[in-house]
Amino acid sequence: MAEAHQAVGFQFTVRPDGVDLRLSQEVIKNIYLSGVTAWKKRAIQFKNGVLAGVYPASPSSWLIVVIAMMSSLYIRIDPSLGMIDAIKDNLPRRDCMSVQTRAVLSAILFATGLWLFLIYLLRYTLKALLSYHGWIFESHGKMSTSTKVWLYLDSVRPLLDSDQYDQMEILANDFKDSKAAQLQRYLMLKSWWATNYVSDWWEEYIYLRGRSPIMVNSNFYIMDLLYVTPTHRQAARAGNVVHAMLKYRRKLERGEHAPLRALGTVPMCSSQMERMFNTTRIPGIETDIVQHLTDRKHLVVYHKGRFFQVWLYTGGRHLLPSELETQFQRILNDTSEPQPGELKLAALTAGNRVPWARARIKYFGQGVNRVSLDAIESAAFFLTLDDEPQGYDPAKTDSLDSYAKSLLHGNCYDRWFDKSFTLISYPNGKMGINAEHSWADAPIVGHMWEYVLATDCFQLGYTEEGHCKGDVNKGLPHPTRLQWQIQKECQGVIETSYRSAKQIADDVDFHAYLFSDFGKGLIKKCRTSPDAFIQLALQLAQFRDQGVFCLTYESSMTRMFRDGRTETVRSCTSEAVAFVRAMEDTSATNTQRLGLFRKAADTHQNMYRLAMTGSGIDRHLFCLYIVLSEPWKLSTSQTPQQQLNLVDITKFPKYVGAGGGFGPVADDGYGVSYIIVGENLITFHISCKFSSADTDSCRFSQNIQKAMLDIQGLFKAENDKKMVELGTHVQLENGKKHI
């Protein structure tokens, strides 16, 4: 085979007069270039380490301080107040130095110490300034445990009757008066030595210790561009997107991504980005672990039940998009059959965690199975070349539903759900991502995806025929099939995991739709937060759908703190309940409803700001080991758009994404992800379970749409009323002038 010959770095022949050794010049050249690339990377990392180590100063500022100190000595001024002389008198081996040398060395040492002191002073000053959150809202004091317990009680008050609330109040006060103080001291102790007192426990106890399947229950998805497909060639689109991801990873490794800023002001922590690539969740009997490696140079591709290893570098550089297209097309053209047990192997990552952990130890601990599994788990990421086209089709009302379910769970065996993310490529050129949740939250993956789509469409581009730009290099070694020896017993475990996962996937009732009646632009004209507007519409829709109120979860980011992740905003407030009841009360006037809406929206906004600035209650109570018995029947999240502003959507309105979504949290509840796209579009991704007789994703979407329009109608009625009053006033004024 041609690729086998190309893989040979040297040949030798044994002769009577000795050994004839022949080296491949091409291989030697590639080895040399790879070494040069590796040393360049180390040099860049060292440079970034130095720059980060002296931030907010710079290495050149040290020279300025030294020159200033030397100049002051030259004009016989001692700004050190005698410290330079003290250093000069205590220098080791000072007898071997001249007086001038000792003076210069002492001045340099003092200047260096002064420079380091100023760096730390600036750092702590900057930290103190960035810790101020009054720019978000009026300054609020630190909350005591008693206050947070009271807020917890206030959040559950709308959900309980009088007897239930009285019992909950007794339990809460008993906790506050008994265990809370001691647990709070332990938590304070942890906060002194941990960078973040929540995040490590959150990752372990909420994600890694869960033994149920992560497919649907934990993993989330992100869709491609909504209206645009840059090329309909599957291999070409995958080539451009993978190359753009490699460019993003290189910028990430070099520390070249600018930090995101909350409302454009305060930089947010970027630590979650560190594990975006080269990361896999490893199953365990009691708990999983997140394995993060460095400098991975290959990815693994799944196609029609076969696993292929594709190298991402040649000659010390990334493969070009055209070269990646060639490699992916070779996989698409491969007609070989899957090995026994290979077709549904990835179903192990979709089923329960304990059987997967045991199978990994028993059947994948040695031999070719271990080598192949290591190739998957150590890959930069995982790519699936799917067989069935997906994407948004205006002519098909369920096209987004099918697309969402494909990204969320696929066939239950064609995504490696343990990888940090699986990139999914469809035969019509559409793409998407399924992401594992423990290592990061959706905005982190969304940040990368925005960069990739912008780079794909506006930098890399395609030829007129839809191929990747650049010369075709057919001399690359072919992708390598991973080899497996899967025993019958192991095949039985795989089949059991598959059946378990398929039962979950078949139970997912999903509906995604585009709300285009109005968007952020009109909501802002009503002087209302778009997020508060949508959350109150969801409360109204939930009540109309179920006839009762429920505990509602909305995710808020806390990345203004080091290693921060999320906090809960409890959207079902007493004010929201009052507004919803007024909307359903035929005797209430529009003025009364609008007043209650504004009050509920203000309350929601204040709660969101409290959560962002570290004054939420749920993560604190979680760390105090309070286990809440109420399920989150309505779990909501807003996926941010335009984090990077690489594409001007006013000029290119078609280049917008549809966002992403997740599965339902409660068996009888809804999961709702919404994305505010530009000024005039909001997309909703709604999930629930077919097995629940009380839920229906299409019905709930209709309730959301009606609730949005009903709330907008309140503002329209108020505006019409003002216009009528203004017209009457003008008529009266004109009448007076006429008289």
TrEMBL record:
EC number(s) recorded for this UniProt protein: 2.3.1.21
**Name by which UniProt lists this protein:** Carnitine O-palmitoyltransferase 1, muscle isoform
Pfam families assigned to the protein according to its UniProt record, in alphabetical order: Carn_acyltransf, CPT_N
Subcellular location field = Mitochondrion outer membrane
Its recorded reaction(s) are: (R)-carnitine + hexadecanoyl-CoA = O-hexadecanoyl-(R)-carnitine + CoA
Q: What class of enzyme is it?
A: transferase
- Give residue ranges for domain Carnitine O-palmitoyltransferase N-terminal: 1-47
Q: Which PROSITE patterns does this entry report, sorted A to Z? A: ACYLTRANSF_C_2 (PS00440)
Q: Which residues form the active site?
A: H437
